[in-house]
Amino acid sequence: DGHDHDGHDHDEHDHGEGRDMGSVTIAGTTMTVEVGGEFEPGAMLHVDLEITDGPVPAAIRLWVGDASGAGALKSKAFGSDGDYHGDAEMPAAPGEGDALWIEVETTAGERIAESVALD
């Protein structure tokens, strides 16, 4: 096609080294989780999700905190073709057992959340 692809990756979603947090299965959808950013109070985490199996959800939301999400800033992950990206803000005063929560909204409108430990 005449374009010279010189092997450089020009992915604008590159926020430095992401940490591989493994995979999680929520409502029948399995996705790998990669987190970039510092695990410190008030920091912004950059979360990359890749769906590897199961249905594509109607929506994916992220937050850091406890299961209730009380006081946490919930954000929606955006993406296409199974690749999603979202930002989650670390609490200003992290509590014991705070985790990254990933909430899947199914096409049926069900919301199911699972946590990924931040350590």
Q: What does this protein look like?
A:
By secondary structure, the protein is an all-beta fold. It has strands at residues 19-26, 29-36, 44-53, 59-65, 75-76, 78-80, 83-89, 99-105, 111-117. It has a 5-stranded antiparallel sheet, with no helix packed on it. Strand 1 (19-26) and strand 2 (29-36) form a beta hairpin. Residues 1-15 have low confidence and may be disordered.
Structure described in brief:
By secondary structure, the chain is mainly β. It has no helices and nine strands.
Radius of gyration: 15 Å
Low-confidence stretches: 1-15
Helix content: under 10%
As a percent range, the share of strand residues is over 45%
User: How many helical elements?
Assistant: 0
Largest sheet: 5 strands, antiparallel
- How many β-strand stretches? 9
Q: Strands of the biggest beta sheet: in what spatial order?
A: 1-2-3-7-6
- Give, in order, the helices and strands: EEEEEEEEE
Distance between the termini: 45 Å
Secondary-structure map:
Layout (H helix, E strand, L loop, with lengths): L18 E8 L2 E8 L7 E10 L5 E7 L9 E2 L1 E3 L2 E7 L9 E7 L5 E7 L2
Short descriptors:
single chain; 119 residues; mainly beta; five-stranded antiparallel β-sheet; four-stranded antiparallel β-sheet; 0% helix; 50% strand; globular; disordered N terminus
